[in-house]
Structure formats: C-alpha cells, structure tokens
Amino acid sequence: MNRKTLFIGSAVLLLAAFVIGAIYYQGQLSKQAEELAARNQTRLVRLYSPTFGNPQAKVHIVEFLDPACGTCAQFYPEVKRIMAENPDRIRLTIRHVPFHNGSEPVVRVLEASRLQDKYLETLRALLGSQSTWVVNHVAQFDRIWGPLQGLGLDLDKLRIDMNAPEIAQHIEQDLADASALAVTATPEFFVNGRPMPSFGLRQLEGLVKDALEASY
Amino acid sequence: MTDNSSTQGPATESAWTMLFGAWLLSCVAVLGALFLSEVMNIPPCSLCWYQRIFMFPLAILLPLGLFPFDRRIVRYTLPLALVGWLIGAFHVLLIHGVIPESLKPCTQGVPCTEIQIQWFGFVTIPLLSLLSFTIIVALLFAAHLRIKK
Asked: Within a 10 A sphere around the Cβ of A198, how many other Cβ atoms?
C-alpha cells in the first residue's frame, strides 16, 4: 500500500475513533445523569428552598449555586435574561452548595437575608462584588460586608440570624440532595427535572426551550 | 549512499515500518490520555503530566522522519522515549509501593499513588503508559539497528 495513504488513513481512523468514542461516552453520561435525576425528583426542591418568579409558571429551573463560584456569577445575568425573555413562564429555585472553602458562612448570610426579604438583592450584591471577597477560590467572610452596605439590610440582625439552626439544616439538606443528584460542580441546572446534557449556556437554553415548547 | 532519504532496500523498508508502528502507538497513547482527561474528566497527576511531555512530541516528530524517510529521526525521538520510559517505570513502582511514599514527588493536586482506573484487576493507567513507552523504545531501537546495517 502507498505509504502516504497508509499514514493519512491511520490518522483519520484514529481521530474518528476518538471522536465517536467521546460522543458515545458523553451520551452515556448524560443518560445516566437524566436517570439519576428522574429517580431523585423529590430531592430537587425542598419546601424551604427560595423560589422566584410566577408560582404558576410551568417551566421550573433549579439551580445549584455557590455564591463564591465564578461561573455562577457569570451565569446569573444569563438566567435572569432567560427569565425576562419569557415573562411569567419560568420560575427559579436556588439550592445552596458551598463547595468553595469559606463559602459556608456566606451562604448562611444569604439564607438570613430572606428573613428581611432581601434575598435577591443580597445575592446580586454578593455575586456582583465576588472578585473583592473571593481570593484564589477562597471566600473571605470579613470582606462581604462592604458590598452589603446600602441594600437596606439590618446587618446586626443578619449576623444573629445567620446562626439559626434551621439555616445549618438547610445547607446540610442542600448538600445531601446535591450529592444524591451527583452535583459535583456549580452551577448545575435542572429544567423541569432534567439535567443539562453537558455543561454550557447553550445547553441550558436548549433545555429551557424544550420545556417551554412542551408546556406552552 | 550517504543520502538519508533513501527508501530503497529491505532494511530501510522494515525500519520504516517499525517507525510507523511507533508513531501509531504514540498516537493511540496521546488520544487515550486525552480521552481519560478531557472526556472522562480524570485529572492527570503530576507524574502523568511528565509522561505526557515525553509522549506527545513523538506523535508529531515521528511522521517528520517518515515523509521523506529520515534515518536520523531515531536520534531525535529515542531520548524522549527513554526519559518517558524512566518516568513511567518510576510511576508504576510508586503505585505498587516499591518506592516508599516519602519519595513521592507530588504533594499537591491529584496524588500519583491514587489508582483511578483498574481493568482486569491489574491494568492501571501508569502501566499502560509504561507498556507504550517500552514498545516504542523497542521499535525505535530495532529501527536504529536496521538502519545501521
């Protein structure tokens, strides 16, 4: 056989095997994730979970979020945009998974802000100022108070409320549910109970589009 | 007959085939390593990275010696394969506990002693790496002997 043909043929075959293998493996993974989510639907949302948007909305996004996670901060405006583009048709539930070091007390502050009806404002302020209080992927709890000024929060009350035992229980439950659903990285989204086939904004938009078409 | 692009004669013919085989194997190793880390999301430990450093160039360098046939390619690729083989051997000894933990060079990230995949009870990723380097070294050395003849 001609040597060049042999060489190019082998290279093409090897690359094709790699690509087909990768596509097959990805497909298996997303099928497994979907089955896992289907088996654990009750773990997606808890009664205490903060939920926003029209309660009658038929499309429900559940986001597992860590306030110290950079990608979560980048996704946040995109999720808001997707919701704004489909008014009253999408609601959003947030689950807290403090995977980053030092992020657990920040989540407790977030939970405590709900008692003052300032959750979304607090979340937006924390994500927007994230680079000032997350250093090398470690959350610096002392630095979050600056960004929380001017939101109308009673910070003294917040410091007391954040130590409530219910809040610790909520975080524990969120982490246990994340573990059962194989959520190992943030942000992770489930749309009407279906996980993203692979990570990405396009994949999230695809899931939302599918759900909107199926429900409306 | 000092022209190094000569492709005539059964000796160079078989040397070419051996170099081609070494290239084929290096490509399988490169794509396999990329599949494990990029598709299966298994993070490579630092020793794995060193082995990659010596395996990846082989997939690029060997074809340069195949078209046109360049007998000096062994001179450029065999040292890479030998160093890769040494690191692979060190890694295999490390995971089998022959080299004590205290000599472990990686303290951050993924520990090199952690066995992430085990097929048939004994095939680990470092073993596959050592096997690939062994066969590549053997093929390159055999090609070298043929060319010298």
From this structure: 12
Query: What is the pLDDT at residue B107?
Result: 47
Q: Report whether pLDDT(A86) > 80.
A: yes
Find the CB nearest B40 among A3, A18, A25. A25
Determine, for residues A22 and B39 on separate chains, whether the beta-carbon distance falls below 8 Å.
yes
Q: In the block, which residue shows the tokens 């395996």?
A: B55
The total number of residues shown for chain A amounts to 216
User: Cα–Cα distance between B89 and A197 in angstroms, integer?
Assistant: 39
Which of A54 and B13 is assigned the larger pLDDT? A54
Q: Do B20 and A6 touch (CB under 8 A)?
A: yes
Nearest to A4 among B16, B38, B67 (CB): B67
Q: What average pLDDT does the segment B25-38 reach?
A: 93
B20: contact with A, CB 8 A cutoff: yes
CA Rg, chain A, in Å?
21
Residue B131 has pLDDT above 50, yes or no: yes
What is the Cα–Cα distance from A111 to A49, expressed in whole angstroms?
10
CA distance B20 to chain A (A): 8
Q: What is the pLDDT of residue B2?
A: 41
Yes or no: say if A110 and A78 are a contact pair by the CB < 8 Å rule: no
ipTM: 0.76
Overall pTM surpassing 0.90 (yes/no): no
Note the Cα A51 to chain centre separation in Å.
Answer: 13
Rounded to an integer, the average pLDDT of B69-89 is: 93
C-alpha R_g of chain B: 17
- Reported as a single tens digit per residue, the pLDDT across A13-53 is 999 999 999 999 989 988 888 888 888 888 999 999 999 99
Those residues whose C-beta lies under 8 Å from the C-beta of residue A156, and which sit 6 or more positions away, are: none
**Tokens, residue B148:** 């010298």
* Residue indicated by tokens 């995949």: B117
Q: Rounded to whole angstroms, what are the CA distances from B79 to B14, B54, B57, B74, B126?
A: 21, 9, 12, 8, 19
Q: Does residue A140 register a pLDDT over 50?
A: yes
Alpha-carbon torsion, ordered B34, B38, B43, B45, to 10 deg: 20
